Amino acid sequence: MKKLKFNLLTGLLLLISVSVFAAGFPPPDKVQETFQKMYPKVTTVDWQRKGDYHIADIRVDGRELNVWFSDKGKWLMTEVDVETLEAVPAAVAKAFMQSTMASMQLEDVRIITFPKQPAVIVIEVEEYNTDTEFQLFYAPDGKLLQTLNVSDTGGEIYPGLF
């Protein structure tokens, strides 16, 4: 029994140390160089690592941005949490308001920008009195690109989705 408790404690401490290590670990020089070129005035950066991605969490003009990079320093996407339909293109807001999902509780609104493809607007909604959540992916012209049920996955947005 003591050995089992020791092994559980050791495993827990290892998991905590790996999580803390990944959260504050500086990215490779190429990633930092690309970031500095994109955001030369930003001085406060919280770096995270998720899989093969390096994410810079920053604030610009009062908005939270998550800027995603590859290990080689390539900018992959930027996620901006805008929180409201008023901050998205009018065509997107109109399309959403005319959809059946508009009757659900609005949870989150994000604009995802990419280096070489059009932006994607992600609207997350939740059914009232349930844990059922959906993400709606819109093109800037209001066209619904995709609807995902993210109830069991948490709804993390990452470059591999696109």
TrEMBL record:
Q: Which domain of life is it from?
A: Bacteria
Q: Does the keyword Kinase apply?
A: no
Q: Which SUPFAM superfamilies match?
A: BT0923-like
Gene3D superfamilies with a match to the protein in the record: 3.10.450.360
Q: Where is the Putative beta-lactamase-inhibitor-like PepSY-like domain?
A: 62-145
* InterPro entries, per the entry: PepSY-like
UniProt name for this protein: Putative beta-lactamase-inhibitor-like, PepSY-like
What is the species of this protein? Answer: Bacteroides fragilis
